[in-house]
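Private note to self, pasted from the team thread so I don't lose it. Backbone tokens:
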């Protein structure tokens, strides 16, 4: 366990001027092995820092871009109650983005740089948000499936070895559970409504099922960085294990909803104690990843416009902060 009175040893310069990090590395390894936490001021291998910046940054961007497909429905939600639930959900996602940008900043990157990378298209975000949301039932399917998959992915991250990331995930996961429930409830009402409503719910589930399975990333055999992330205890389970967990959790819920999942190979396997499921079409995944998904350009263009439109707010906030700090400095001078 990490304690403040036991700091990681600093790298000691050698004769050649190169820091000798052997001792620091040993301390880092021991702490990881003992399920301890690495904190911002601790020594950490450069590759660990870079991996975390990439992963947490990507995660933050996904939360922020993920506001768009649902934000799209706030003005058209079918009732005041639905509107306020959806608005709260989209605001939660903004909050998730902010916790995560802050967690990434503890690793030595600033938020402006991350935002620039997102807008310029050099940083990634989850491909799931590049699909369109043409009907109200999409709000149900996103909550139930996309937030459901996010929970499977993120609950183990509450035990990630990097302290600020793990702590941010605890609150995020609590809110994701609410998101999943509200999505399920939208679909439940639709599937127990008129024929047309049920058909709309089924159509949304048909469109979101496979992309949700892709959210867990490529199969373990094609996921070269996973082993290192697992050794660092950032990642706790493999992509395929998490995907299986999601399928096992979701199939019984689909039965309660009275909706079918669009996979003829989906069936309970008594021997394995898990559901078997069909082949995933990874060509589609790769296309979306390369920026050729249905909404990639729209999402980035919207994000850039929002950033540009917010320039005056950032300027006003920094002018106010500068004024406040001048006032504090003046008051301090007068008092001394
Ligand atoms: Fe979220
Ligand atoms: Fe969510």
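Design output:
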């Amino acid at each position: 366990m990490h304690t403040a009175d036991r700091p990681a040893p600093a790298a000691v310069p050698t004769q050649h001027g190169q820091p000798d990090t052997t001792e620091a590395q040993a301390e880092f390894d021991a702490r990881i092995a003992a399920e301890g936490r690495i904190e911002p001021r601790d020594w950490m291998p450069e590759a660990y820092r870079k991996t975390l910046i990439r992963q947490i940054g990507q995660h933050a961007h996904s939360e922020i871009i993920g506001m768009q497909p649902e934000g799209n429905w706030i003005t058209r939600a079918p009732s005041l109650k639905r509107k306020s639930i959806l608005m709260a959900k989209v605001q939660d996602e903004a909050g998730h983005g902010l916790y995560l940008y802050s967690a990434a900043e503890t690793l030595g990157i600033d938020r402006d740089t991350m935002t620039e990378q997102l807008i310029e298209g050099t940083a990634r975000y989850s491909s799931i948000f590049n699909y369109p949301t043409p009907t109200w039932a999409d709000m149900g399917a996103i909550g139930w499936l996309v937030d459901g998959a996010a929970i499977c992915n993120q609950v183990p991250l509450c035990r990630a070895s990097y302290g600020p990331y793990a702590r941010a995930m605890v609150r995020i996961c609590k809110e994701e559970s609410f998101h999943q429930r509200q999505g399920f409830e939208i679909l439940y009402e639709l599937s127990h409504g008129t024929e047309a409503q049920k058909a709309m719910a089924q159509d949304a589930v048909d469109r979101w099922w496979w992309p949700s399975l892709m959210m867990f990333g490529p199969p373990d055999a094609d996921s070269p960085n996973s082993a290192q992330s697992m050794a660092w205890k950032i990642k706790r389970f493999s992509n395929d294990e998490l995907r299986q967990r999601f399928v096992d959790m979701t199939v019984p819920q689909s039965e309660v909803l009275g909706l079918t999942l669009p996979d003829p190979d989906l069936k309970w396997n008594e021997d394995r104690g898990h559901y078997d499921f069909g082949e995933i079409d990874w060509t589609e995944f790769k296309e979306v990843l390369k920026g050729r998904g249905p909404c990639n350009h729209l999402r980035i263009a919207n994000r850039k416009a929002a950033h540009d439109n917010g320039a005056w707010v950032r300027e006003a906030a920094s002018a106010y902060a500068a004024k406040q700090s001048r006032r504090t400095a003046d008051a301090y001078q007068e008092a001394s």
